[in-house]
Design brief:
By secondary structure, the protein is an alpha/beta fold. Helices cover about 50% and strands about 15% of the residues. It has four domains: about 140 residues, no CATH class; about 120 residues, 3-Layer(aba) Sandwich (Rossmann fold), CATH 3.40.50; about 220 residues, 3-Layer(aba) Sandwich (Rossmann fold); about 60 residues, no CATH class. The protein has 24 helices and 21 strands. The strands form five sheets. Strands 9-8-7-10-11-12-17-21-20 form a nine-stranded mixed beta sheet, with helices on both faces. Helix 7 packs across helix 8 and helix 12 packs across helix 19. The longest helix is centred in the N-terminal third of the chain and has 28 residues. The radius of gyration is 34 Å and the shape is elongated. The N and C termini lie far apart (about 95 Å).
């Protein structure tokens, strides 16, 4: 048979309908019975056994049709038949033959040859399985690829993900990969064959394997690898001088349609090695489904991802409150396209505008409010201290009061690790905001804060800056060789914020597990590697020194704050709140007066009175010393002492 005819036959078989499958199976059942008699009597059935044959066909065929239909074996795509399907076929044939044996004595004449039962079972099993395997083989043969246009490829990782990737590549000849073999760091696998594909060696041998096998690209199939392992694999690929891509983890595969459709470039997130957060989806759904949710700073990095994550739980509506018009416009378009069944209402406004906040909250009456709006860039806020206070402190106070007045059930504020022992104005204002909403907790609206560190790819984070510097040919600037920061991805941070919002009764400060801190210089080196370049050779790394308000190590809790575990391994809760005994009202009034008269010394001293472990930056202290002296604080010293 010519290749063209085989291709036509394969296409016909893959387009079969259910009635065609049933007809084929019906014919198999009948043919198996006839062949069983022919084999039993050496191809010539004596006339006295013809009634036995007729009775057998009248019983076995209907019984097997019933059994195969009950087990759903008369439907499905035969071209995807697997070992599991063959096992189901064996079980169906056992059941069909057993029922046939029980029913046949009621209809067949006496003296039925018992060996026919066994022959019929074996023939029926072989023919039903063989028909399916023939379809699959015909399909695979008809789609055998033209290897001339394929990239010679190695799969790094001979585990379940690698084998699944190999199988999908074989089944999809449109993919531009010819898999030559595997590489795996498990030395026990070296030299073995998986689906006729050899495991050549480990990662250290990759350069020699690439050279000897003329490999053009490597597909990394290590979805559970941690950051150190991914970095090591990346270095092996660079040493071999070969291009590389990766396949995602299980969570991404579930969202998509298989591994091959999600082959992508290695991202810096892969080098962090953070495993997906395990969330209580039911609890989050109970919190959000059917509710109106209000998000401030909705078009920012965290705010926009919160909107996307919230939309997955089918809320009644999402209200996006944002001062940045263009960013909100683009978010509105995205939400309408990605979540057409979830109403999204973009609302322009500033959290410093009490009247606008009241208008929007009165119009939509949300049940839950996520407060993500804030000024967050440390050096910028060190230079604009009053604007930092007006937005992060007074703006948060405005939103919190408006939420309480308009019946919001749950208020969740996005805080920062920089609120712990703050060394900059931004961190100090976030700590003051935490204290303000804690004081509002009175049994009505539930107020909680959630602290976490840096998120990869957020607006103004080091990742986009490093990428721009690499694209420009360097140098990449890092403040200090020992600078370390906590990092997590934007989706992970947003998901854990949603989880934290389902916990507690109000008045809690939750902290997200940020894992181990990452050295910024290592992050810069990995980004250079991901760009296909060599650190310190192709792209230089320069150290510029700490900027005003920065510290080498960020912290997530103070020395005098104790953390307790919660039911979620990546979320902890602080005990104690740090509220001053004099209350927050005199401090709020003092800060308002200080901002009005632009009093830097007064601002620094008032924040020091309120936050015992606030350590202002040297730059800010110099500004305070050089300015004319004024009344340094509107809070009486006695009250400040009492607060201690």
């Amino acid at each position: 048979m010519s290749r063209f005819n085989i291709q036509r036959a394969a296409r016909h078989l893959t387009q079969h309908t259910r009635w065609v499958m049933r007809t084929v199976q019906l014919a198999i059942f009948a043919v198996a019975g006839v062949l069983a008699f022919l084999l039993r009597f050496d191809i010539s059935v004596p006339p006295q056994y013809w009634p036995h044959l007729l009775a057998a066909l009248c019983v076995w065929v209907p019984v097997k049709v019933f059994v195969f239909h009950s087990l759903r074996l008369d439907r499905g795509w035969w071209r995807y038949v697997s070992i599991r399907d063959v096992a189901r076929l064996a079980a169906a044939n056992v059941a069909g033959s057993a029922l046939g044996c029980l029913a046949l004595p009621w209809f067949a004449p006496k003296g039925f040859p018992r060996s026919v039962y066994i022959l019929d079972f074996l023939l029926c099993l072989g023919m039903t399985a063989g028909a399916r395997m023939t379809v699959r083989l015909a399909f695979e043969f008809s789609r055998s690829p033209n290897l001339g246009t394929k990239k010679r490829t190695l799969i790094y990782g001979a585990g379940d993900a690698g084998v699944t990737l190999l199988r999908e590549i074989h089944q999809n000849p449109a993919l531009a990969y010819e898999v030559v073999g595997f590489v795996d760091d498990d030395s026990a696998k070296t030299g073995s064959f998986i689906h006729h594909t050899k495991v050549f060696g480990n990662g250290a041998a990759l350069p020699s394997i690439v050279a000897s096998q003329a490999i053009e690209t490597v597909l990394i199939a290590l979805p559970s690898a941690n950051g150190a392992q991914m970095t090591r694999v990346l270095n092996h690929c660079h040493e071999a001088g070969v291009s590389y891509k990766t396949v995602p983890g299980l969570a991404e595969v579930i969202e998509g349609n298989g591994l091959t459709t999600q082959i992508r470039d290695v991202a810096v997130e892969d080098l962090l090695g953070r495993t997906p957060a395990r969330l209580d989806q039911d609890r989050i759904s109970a919190k959000l489904t059917g509710r109106t949710v209000f998000v401030t700073g909705a078009a920012g990095s965290i705010g926009s991802e919160l909107c996307r994550q919230i939309a997955r739980f089918n809320p009644r509506a999402i209200v996006g409150f944002e001062i940045a018009e263009s960013a909100l416009f683009h978010l509105d378009r995205e939400m309408r396209q990605s979540f057409p069944n979830v109403p999204f209402y973009p609302e322009i406004g500033s959290i410093q505008n009490k009247q606008r906040l009241a208008e929007v909250l009165k119009q939509y009456r949300p049940s839950i409010l996520y407060h993500a709006a804030a000024y967050k860039h440390v050096p910028m806020m060190e230079a604009h201290v009053f604007e930092a206070v007006e937005n992060n402190v007074f703006g948060t106070w405005n939103v919190a009061l408006a939420a309480a007045r308009h019946g919001v059930d749950h208020f969740v504020m996005i805080s920062s690790d920089k609120a712990v022992r703050p060394t900059n104005l931004m961190g100090a204002t976030k700590r003051v905001a935490e204290l303000l909403i804690l004081e509002l907790q009175n049994g009505g609206t539930s107020f909680v804060s959630v602290r976490f560190g840096n998120v990869l790819g957020s607006n103004g984070s080091v990742i986009p800056i490093f990428k721009q510097q690499i694209a420009a040919g360097g140098p990449v600037t890092v403040t200090h060789p020992e600078m370390r920061r906590y990092f997590m991805t934007i989706p992970e941070a947003s998901q854990l914020v949603l989880q934290a919002s389902t916990m507690g009764h109000g008045g809690e400060i939750y902290v997200l597990d940020m894992g181990a801190p990452v050295k910024i210089v290592d992050l810069a080196r990995n980004l250079i590697l991901l760009s296909g370049l060599r650190p310190d050779e192709d792209i230089k790394i320069e150290f510029t020194g700490l900027r005003p308000g920065e510290k080498l190590y960020e912290e997530l809790n103070s020395m005098d704050e104790d953390t307790l575990p919660t039911s979620y391994e990546r979320i902890k809760v602080f005990t104690g709140n740090g509220l001053p005994s004099a209350g927050m009202e005199p401090y709020l009034k003092a800060l308002h007066d200080i901002c009005g008269r632009r009093d830097v010394p007064g601002l620094v001293l008032t924040l020091k009175d309120l936050i015992r472990d606030y350590n202002p930056s040297a730059e800010l202290l110099r500004r305070a010393v050089h300015l004319p002296k004024t009344a340094v604080t509107a809070v009486p010293r006695a009250k400040a002492a009492a607060a201690r």
